[in-house]
């Protein structure tokens, strides 16, 4: 009997509780009406709650009565709350959660841009180590960038030639400041190296079009380089080779909040040219001096960096004169360049950030040319203008002062606004024989840009830039916009549009300053996929040129043109252990009516098809790495454009296409120790197959004689030893392979 009574009491209690419970049911979806499993749904300040199932549904039973707050929360989504009144009746509540926008998960706009380790959003396509180990690049930044799609293979000129654009259309920036002369002075058809070592930078961002409103004065491309911050520890380094030798020191303060360093580099090609025969007659073998120093200090919430470098080079080269049978043209040139850059980045709090940059640079070129006989004696033949003009002396001095301020505000949902202004004062002085001219200019610019994140998968950027040049006495406004959408599985589709204005080069302004800006409009669409160490990129583009410089019959802005094409890049760093390979391909269709062209022509700096395949392999057992790069490009057009009998119009006397460009380059490096120093032995060779690559043709004044433009030597070789004290670069090299 007692057991029956107890059972009845328990039954009545359970029934009473069950009848007194309120039932809360519902579902949780995202903004696409897709169910979200694993969402926590709970009554605030109680122990009652549930988790959504695989269909996004939940059920909560509670004995609470009255008004409560129901909270739905999940990782990656914004929390949502709903006020409900609990009674005896069941309640149906449905939640639609909005994706939480975070820097870690947010999509990045990639149309027209290659990154390389510039922060969380950087796309590691080209790093400092890549520059040093890419076969054929010989640790030169521009030559390594030339292996990426969009860059043309021009082996008789230094610089970046992007999507049919000339080298002056691509600009380089260090810590926000324009580098007006990034290359050493070179002789005609003999390319020079860049002035700055890859090890100076922590990353590169290469834009082939559609770049940010923060940058201007570049029709085709920008290469943005950011110097390293504080070193890991104090170190010393040396580089020893038959051509180049250097010594550097980096000193880190004991409190690890500041550092300073310096480096000196001397290059002399005398020994190398004695061993490897050169076609030109170098009566002054090329030699270079380069000294740089840096200072960095960590502020309360940021960093101040100062970098300065001074470089000097000199050479003399003698070649047969194409307009005579037995005479020569001898050119002597020297150059010095001093570049200074100061950069201050500071987080001001509450999402505000400030970036201030300033720079000063000065460059002086001295070039003399002589007509000489077979015994190298100067000759002066005034009755033949095409020979008389061979004799000249040119002195050129350029200086540039820059100041730039960028203010950024980042909101909690990653939406960002940036705005600022910059000021450039440039001076160009040249003396050609008895002719002198000075071209001062003040360029002021203002810009604004906003990033709008609608979701983690959808972002848009809108920007505008306005510029005024005192020498042109004209102002221009350039709108820019881009959009990116992530489709899942590491795939992103992006699009970009922008207008870009650029002053004419000083070589045109020295003839007349009655010129206007040149203009390019970019349209870009891009697909990119990055999954588990593999990177695929496909991009189509169209670029419309307007107001290009024409030099016939007078200097004016009546030129025009276009460039369109498609590019592919694939890189795989993980499928095969210690193997890194990449493939790039570019198709380019371009024509221009500019300079003295009689009509729209494909410029001689463009090839329809360009492809590069690169493979790097590291053998851990012997501490040795090797790199092979094969580059192919179809032939480039060449023209003999000469004046007609009136001298007011030009016509094509001869034209054709070169036989195409092919080269197989190789580099090998070995990691070891020498005494207390970590050491890297390095060797490289270009054009292993001995291909004769013709870059174009030089013509006599009447175009009756033409000579192929060939490199100074069919192959180049390089060997060197890198020594480090303080930091074992061998391990970082292995870690990044």
Describe this structure in words.
The chain is mainly beta. The chain has two domains: 20-96, Sandwich (Immunoglobulin-like); 113-735, Beta Barrel (Maltoporin, Chain A), CATH 2.40.170.20. It has seven helices and 39 strands. The strands form six sheets. It has a 22-stranded antiparallel beta barrel.
Quick summary:
The chain is mainly beta and 737 residues long.
Characteristics:
single chain; 737 residues; mainly beta; Immunoglobulin-like; Maltoporin, Chain A; 2 domains; 22-stranded antiparallel beta barrel; five-stranded mixed β-sheet; globular
List the helices and strands and how they pair.
Elements: H1 2-20, E1 22-29, E2 40-43, E3 49-51, E4 57-62, E5 66-73, E6 80-86, E7 91-96, E8 113-114, H2 128-133, H3 141-145, E9 170-174, E10 177-179, E11 201-207, E12 221-227, E13 235-240, E14 244-252, E15 258-268, H4 270-275, E16 281-298, E17 302-320, E18 328-349, E19 352-372, E20 378-379, H5 385-388, E21 392-410, E22 416-432, E23 435-455, E24 458-469, E25 474-488, E26 491-502, H6 506-509, E27 518-531, E28 534-550, E29 556-572, E30 579-593, E31 609-619, E32 624-633, E33 637-643, E34 650-657, E35 661-674, E36 677-685, E37 697-699, E38 706-708, E39 717-725, H7 729-735
Parallel strand pairs: 1-7, 9-12
Antiparallel strand pairs: 1-4, 2-3, 2-5, 5-6, 8-11, 9-10, 11-12, 13-14, 13-39, 14-15, 15-16, 16-17, 17-18, 18-19, 19-20, 19-21, 21-22, 22-23, 23-24, 24-25, 25-26, 26-27, 27-28, 28-29, 29-30, 30-31, 31-32, 32-35, 33-34, 35-36, 36-39, 37-38
């Amino acid at each position: 009997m007692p057991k029956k009574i107890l059972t009845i009491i328990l039954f009545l209690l359970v029934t009473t509780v069950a009848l007194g419970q309120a039932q809360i049911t519902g579902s949780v979806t995202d903004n696409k009406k897709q169910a979200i499993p694993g969402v926590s749904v709970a009554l605030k300040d109680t122990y009652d709650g549930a988790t959504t199932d695989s269909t996004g549904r939940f059920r909560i039973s509670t004995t609470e009565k009255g008004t409560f707050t129901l909270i739905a929360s999940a990782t990656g989504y914004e929390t949502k709350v709903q006020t409900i009144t609990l009674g005896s009746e069941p309640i149906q509540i449905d939640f639609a959660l909005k994706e939480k926008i975070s820097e870690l998960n947010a999509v990045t706009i990639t149309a027209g841009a290659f990154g390389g380790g510039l922060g969380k959003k950087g796309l590691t396509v080209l790093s400092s180590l890549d520059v040093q180990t890419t076969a054929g690049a010989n640790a030169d930044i521009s030559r390594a960038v030339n292996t990426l799609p969009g860059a043309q293979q021009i082996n008789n000129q230094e610089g970046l030639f992007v999507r049919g654009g000339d080298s002056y259309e691509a600009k380089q920036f260090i810590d926000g400041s324009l580098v007006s002369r990034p290359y050493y002075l070179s002789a005609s058809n003999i390319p020079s190296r860049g002035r700055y070592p890859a090890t100076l930078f922590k990353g590169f961002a290469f834009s082939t079009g559609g770049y940010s409103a923060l940058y201007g004065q570049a029709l085709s491309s920008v290469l943005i380089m950011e110097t390293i911050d504080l070193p890991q520890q104090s170190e010393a380094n040396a580089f020893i080779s038959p051509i180049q030798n250097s010594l550097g020191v980096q000193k880190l303060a004991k409190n690890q909040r500041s550092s300073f360093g310096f480096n000196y580099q001397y290059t002399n090609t005398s020994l190398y040219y004695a061993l490897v025969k050169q076609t030109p007659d170098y009566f002054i073998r090329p030699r270079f001096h380069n000294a740089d120093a840096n200072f960095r200090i960590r502020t309360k919430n940021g960093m101040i960096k100062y970098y300065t470098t001074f470089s000097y080079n000199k050479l003399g080269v003698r070649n047969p004169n194409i307009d005579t049978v037995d005479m020569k043209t001898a050119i002597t040139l020297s150059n010095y360049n001093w570049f200074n850059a100061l950069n201050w980045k500071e987080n001001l709090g509450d999402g505000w950030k400030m970036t201030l940059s300033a720079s000063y640079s000065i460059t002086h070129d001295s070039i003399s040319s002589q007509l000489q006989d077979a015994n190298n004696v100067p000759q002066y033949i005034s009755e033949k203008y095409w020979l008389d003009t061979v004799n000249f002396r040119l002195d050129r001095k350029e200086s540039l002062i820059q100041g730039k301020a960028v203010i950024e505000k980042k909101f909690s949902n990653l939406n960002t606004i940036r705005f600022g202004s910059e000021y450039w004062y440039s001076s160009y002085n040249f003396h050609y024989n008895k002719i002198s001219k000075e071209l001062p200019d003040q360029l002021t610019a203002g810009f604004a840009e906003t990033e709008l994140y609608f979701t983690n998968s959808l972002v848009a950027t809108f920007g505008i830039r306005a510029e005024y040049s005192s020498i042109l006495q004209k102002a221009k406004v350039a709108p820019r916009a881009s959009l990116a959408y992530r489709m899942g599985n590491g795939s992103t589709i992006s699009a970009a549009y922008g207008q870009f204005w650029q002053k004419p080069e000083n070589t045109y302004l020295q003839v007349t300053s009655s010129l206007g800006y040149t203009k390019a409009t970019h349209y870009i669409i891009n697909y990119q996929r990055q999954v588990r160490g593999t990177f695929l990129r496909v991009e189509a583009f169209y670029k419309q040129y307007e107001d290009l410089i024409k030099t016939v019959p007078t200097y004016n802005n009546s030129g025009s043109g276009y460039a369109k094409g498609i590019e592919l890049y694939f890189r795989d760093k993980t499928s095969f252990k210690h193997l890194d390979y990449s493939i790039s391909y570019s198709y380019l269709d371009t024509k221009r009516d500019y300079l003295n062209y009689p009509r729209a022509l494909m410029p001689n700096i463009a090839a329809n098809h360009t492809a590069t395949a690169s493979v790097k392999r590291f053998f851990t057992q012997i501490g040795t790495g090797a790199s092979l790069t094969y580059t192919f490009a179809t032939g480039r057009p060449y023209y003999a454009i000469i004046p007609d009998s009136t001298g007011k119009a030009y016509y094509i006397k001869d034209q054709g296409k070169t036989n195409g460009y092919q080269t197989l380059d190789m580099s090998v490096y070995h990691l070891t120790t020498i005494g207390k120093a970590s050491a890297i032995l390095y060797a490289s060779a270009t054009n292993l197959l001995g291909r004769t690559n013709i870059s174009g043709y030089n013509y006599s004044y009447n175009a009756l004689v033409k000579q192929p433009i060939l490199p100074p030597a069919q192959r180049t070789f390089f060997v060197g030893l890198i020594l480090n004290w303080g930091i074992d670069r061998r391990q970082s090299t292995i870690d990044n392979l």
